[in-house]
Amino acid sequence: MVFFENLVLGFSVALTPTNLFFCFLGTLIGTLIGVLPGIGPLATISLLIPTTFYMPPATGIIMLAGVYFGSMYGGSTTSILVNVPGESASVVTCLDGYQMARQGRAGPALGIAAFGSFIAGTLGLIVLMLVASSLAEFALKMGPPEYFSLLILGIIMTVYLAQGSMIKALIMAAIGIFLGTIGTDSFTSQSRFAFGTLYLRNGIDILPVVMGLFGIAEILTNLEETTRTEIFKTEIKHLFPTIQDWKDSIWPILRGSLVGFFLGVIPGGGPVISSFASYVIEKKISKYPERFGKGAIEGVAGPESANNSCVSGAFIPLLTLGIPSTAVMAIILSALVVHGLRPGPLLLKNYPDVFWGIIASMYIGNAMLLVLNLPLIGVWVQVLKVPYRILFPIILGLCMVGVYSMNNNVLDIGLMVFFGVTGYFLRKFDFEAAPLVLAVVIGPMMEDSLRQSLLIFRGNVFGFFHRPIASAFLIFSFILLAYSIVAWARKKGRVYE
Amino acid sequence: MILALYVIVSGFRLGFGEWREPGPGFIAVGSGCLLLFLSALWFVMTLIKKWGIETTKRFFIESDSYKRVLLTLLSLIVFALILNKTGFIISSLVLMIFLFKAIESQRWKLTILLAAIVTFCCVIIFQIWLQVQFPEGPISIYTIKKWFR
Questions:
Q1: Between helices B88-98 and B65-86, what is the axis angle to 10°?
Q2: Per-residue pLDDT at A232
Q3: Number of domains in chain A
């Protein structure tokens, strides 16, 4: 009964004309940036946060969530038609989606990607609604030791699930934790690493960091190449999958939804890993694995479903525990904080209209995306033809303006450019920026909860192990770390043999 | 490693505190130590891996890539430097014209048209709709309004 009351409350918020408009705008922008290579949802959401200052909190977050969902939908279009993922979560869709396009089956590929994303997103939201209240109640029982141990687990999982080297990911996390200390100490009000400047005394704003690491760095990397991609010239017809396509795809969609949701909930998961995990699972359990990579529709249905349900899953730890599981969620957490809302168990209690409004709007957003993506495929194909030499100055200009509009401070532009250069070099040396971003956001939370915990335990570090929940998280973190080290050592041993 | 050492030293200067009452430098020292250990490990591993192996991977993908990257960065820095002095409209136009023309060259007419459209859209969206305060210069929305009166 309470469940339906919450749903009604949510829809009453989400169905206002203003929120409907901004939900639509968010999904449209999200689809656009998903289609266009060169800018991803992380940089776009960072860019749009200053625009939400002038909106009610629910409206702003509804728009940003729409952007995130939309980018997952839009990314599949370029993967299938151009063999270039518009968004990193659609990389694996290139493997079979493009092959389907080459076989004259671009329509069914695009169709099943859209329908699969819709089903997965909806299923993910249903589970989100069912578990959110219980998890928020559970979170109220958590104190500083539990939060600290959960955040440690989050960092370890982010590093463990990193696509590249774990050591490099850990280095990035360590740097992120350090960057989070810049500013004023919350316990003693002492200035830390501010070099006597007022700008740094307020701490490092995450938005210029993200826009630099992901926006500017991406553009600088892309500018190195002057080759042009050609859209595969095929007539896109029969967008609605056949009955056989549905028979082949329904189980991959359901499995992808489950995998994606689970990996969205756990820190360090994210849409990229979800889509890869789904592809690997589908290939492993398929009766005809040799078809994968040659146009198997399961290779599109599963990953596209996974990356979409992952978005729903990722909102769970953010909204109920106040802990972001991915870099994008870290930015959305910043957006909530800017609006004076502290995500966590008290968000549900004190602002149920915001909480359920955001969830209900994601239902609506999913439906809008299905409508946007299928009939408008022709429009997105035309958008793809815009040359990158015209796109990148527009993106750069928007980044500059967007970051300046936050605080009307030119130093923010300088910070963004600095991190743009840093991000460029990080990419050259195969360092991932996502652990750094996550650590910058959760580092201060981790520090506060650690110091509070040590105060509670009077310096006795083993006090964490007297708390069942905290000790469970810590033990799991140690096991994960130990397993990774052992696996790495074995791999190195085999190499040297 | 240099960064790690700096962080550790600064952390101790800020005050490590005690375990029962951690100081402001507590987490800085912790992250610095972790960073130092990992950096040293990565350095040693890289040395072992590359011992006797010649690496032929190019830093820049194309021979003239560095020019485009450097020019783009310089344009962003110049934009930041001139923004407060010349105002938003002029600095934005200069940036856009440079990026459209100098990096991957367009025709002049198209360059100026696109630069004007982008600048105009930014003014409409950010300054007029969202009421963001941009630096005023010799040309601003107020001077443009005066011209048309």
A1: 170
A2: 52
A3: 1
